[in-house]
Design goal:
The chain is 0% helix and 59% strand.
Amino acid sequence: QVQLIESGGGLVQTGGSLRLSCAASGRTFSSYAMGWFRQAPGKEREFVAAISWSDGSTNYADSVKGRFTISRDNAKNTVYLQMNSLKPEDTAVYYCILDQSSRRVWGQGTQVTVSS
């Protein structure tokens, strides 16, 4: 089994920064991408960013382009999400995901709250 442990969420003021981390453990072989989704209260879960495990190529939601940066440390099986210029609309539970050939694994989520 694969486990994803997220950390780094919290409360920050508008314009501030946070860095989320997600460490994968267990049977992580055959994984080809990791990323982040988020879910705000009363809204559907939405894609935020993803990174390829092999070549490091990245993909972002339009709403976070230029403000968020996803990166990875293959040796630590860890993915990071650097979030800058945070806005109140970024408030959500952020979920880490790991994609393998036959399934997607979800983390438990970490709360990010941006105060105005």
